[in-house]
Amino acid sequence: MTDTPPYRVAIWVGETQLPLIKGLSRTPGLEVMALGGDSTTIRDTANQLGAVHAPDPKMLAGVEADATLIADPSRIMPTEMLSAMITEASRSNRPLLSMAPRPASVEESAELIASSVLPSPVPCFRDLPQGRRFIAAAESFESPSAASVEASGPAAATSLTGRLFDAFDLLSVWFGLPSFVDATAVRPVGVHGHIAPQRLFATARYPDGRAASISAGIDGGRHARITTLFGPGGRMQSLDGSVDWTGPDGEVIEHEATTTPGPDDFYQEFSESIQSHVRLARSGERSRSPELIVDLLATCEAVLLSSRTGEPESVDAVRQMLGRV
What we know:
The protein is α/β, with parallel strands linked by helices.
């Protein structure tokens, strides 16, 4: 369910994400008020949607909107530009959202980590009704001893670090933050030269001896998340929110049939995620503390570092590095 009237959103977009924006514009609960981007195609799309065109990201601050979305995951924004957007979001109590965790690298972080407001990655499973429902169901499961999370889909839906953030954000509900991560990057077979990874496999080790595995990819298929918890309660799995729980001896405790995916499911999820952040902001709350966001950013950065070094990396060491660069 959505509130009426629709929430207004101002969006800085990359051309690759224009189909997403068009899908969002048709989704109940949201109204695209402004579209930012420095290309003729983006300007034409803004005109088609009846939205203001903003060739400069700073111009989005002047648009009457309930949230600002950075929907250009491949672009690294200049620090001064992102700082200006953060300052405006803080001043107006307007959620600043992003399809990629930002700052996306240590090099960007110097002026931004100390901000009281960092862009919140969307969509994240924990912000969605089906995510909250799975978390509530897991309260009866007892504390899990191990877990696995797969977050997959096409590159246009989010960034690779966005999927990593989503996975670790959900795991933090039960496990907190890992002490070490060990990761491997996967690139297209037969492609030579430097190319960014399309999938990351990571093992996370937690201070209390528990562990989790993460598979995050932007290498195609539909947008989907599969989370499995293991522990004294047996095995509990969520496939896009549908719960399957079997006990220690294999008995079926709860089983829900999965729904047939529809073409607009991802747009609806994105809309629900944005609306969730707006409602929290209006009530004076946040979905995550600034400290947790920075800790999750450090975890993602440690995974990327491990995938390059081939060695386990300390999340705490990366966290300290983010704080002092």
